[in-house]
């Protein structure tokens, strides 16, 4: 005779109906807290921590978004960590407001749209689109990463068109995704960078040439250097210097990769480093670097942001960095 009672191993999830559909109650509470006004959050934390005297930045620093990653099911636990829960617990939508983490989030969204957005569940699709909306709003607010958001919206639109007849979820939900992406594209297309007012503060062009060279040599994407060279004559001359492209070659590629295109009988002063960089870039691609990474703790199995940390029971926890592709591979996407 089958057992019809409630299994004690069941996670016992409760669901709540919102304007966007049904969501898990425990994740809905996290989203509500993340979307609260910053002044309200600061007031609530001050009331809870009356004995701690710290400024507002330290108060925000106490919040550590993380999630316990369940690698496999056991007899006692029949629940795996899903992507939608990880995106909420790690506060990926709030990470777009952090200049250190925004590039990591951009690469993560790019991989999701280019790989298997159509294979995600309806809940995960909604979370990804909400992160894209937060990214778009932050770009319109700060006027940074305009080219990045255009590329992401183009990838999202392509994924939605390709998965028109093969997606998971209802057709109504898919139509809402297309409408949301179209609205974001309209806002970005109407966006224009405002001219900076003459406030008397130092501008990039006011810096000494040595400082400008040092800054340009540490830019990851060479396209930004080429765009900077189009803005003024002095920056154009610096962007064409052999020393700058030599530093970029040594930064992005190892010696064996450079030797593939390095002429043997030319002197160092006659080497066209910009040409070598372009050939290496086409063959090997560029190096992806991020100011902040997601990390997986080997002691407690938590996924967390390195700059924020996580509450681990071990004093000396060992963790490994997760690239955006490694993070996606954890959920078998």
TrEMBL record:
Subcellular localization, as worded in the UniProt entry: Nucleus
Organism: Lottia gigantea
Pathway: Protein modification; protein ubiquitination
Protein name per Swiss-Prot or TrEMBL: F-box domain-containing protein
Record key words, sorted: Nucleus, Ubl conjugation pathway
GO BP annotations, alphabetical order: protein ubiquitination
Cellular component annotations (GO), alphabetically ordered: cytoplasm; nucleus; SCF ubiquitin ligase complex
Coiled-coil residue spans: none
InterPro entries: F-box-like_dom_sf, FBX25/32
Signal peptide extent: none
Main location: nucleus
């Amino acid at each position: 005779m089958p057992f019809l009672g409630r299994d004690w191993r069941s996670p016992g999830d409760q669901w709540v109906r919102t304007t966007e559909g049904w969501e898990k109650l425990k994740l809905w509470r996290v989203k509500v807290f993340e979307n609260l006004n910053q002044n309200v959050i600061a007031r609530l934390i001050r009331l809870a921590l009356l004995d701690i005297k710290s400024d507002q930045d330290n108060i925000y620093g106490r919040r550590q978004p993380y999630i316990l990653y369940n690698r496999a099911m056991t007899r006692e636990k029949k629940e795996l960590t899903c992507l939608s829960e990880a995106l909420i617990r790690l506060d990926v939508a709030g990470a777009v407001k952090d200049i250190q983490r925004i590039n990591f989030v951009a690469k993560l969204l790019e991989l999701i749209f280019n790989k298997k957005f159509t294979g995600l569940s309806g809940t995960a699709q909604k979370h990804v689109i909400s992160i894209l909306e937060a990214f778009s709003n932050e770009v319109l607010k700060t006027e940074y990463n305009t080219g990045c958001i255009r590329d992401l919206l183009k990838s999202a639109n392509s994924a939605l068109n390709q998965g028109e007849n093969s997606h998971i979820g209802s057709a109504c939900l898919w139509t809402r995704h297309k409408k949301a992406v179209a609205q974001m594209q309209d806002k970005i297309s109407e966006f224009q960078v405002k001219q900076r007012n003459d406030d008397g503060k130092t501008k990039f062009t006011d810096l000494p040439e040595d400082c400008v060279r040092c800054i340009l040599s540490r830019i990851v994407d060479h396209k930004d250097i080429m765009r900077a060279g189009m803005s003024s004559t002095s920056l154009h001359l610096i962007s064409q210097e052999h020393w700058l492209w030599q530093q970029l070659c040594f930064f992005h590629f190892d010696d064996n990769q450079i030797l593939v295109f390095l002429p043997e009988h030319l002197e160092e002063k006659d080497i066209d480093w910009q040409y070598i960089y372009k050939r290496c870039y086409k063959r090997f691609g560029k190096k992806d670097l991020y100011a902040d990474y997601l990390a997986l703790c080997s002691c407690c199995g938590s996924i967390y942001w390195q700059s924020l940390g996580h509450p681990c029971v071990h004093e000396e926890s060992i963790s490994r960095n997760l690239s955006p592709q490694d993070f996606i591979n954890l959920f078998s996407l």
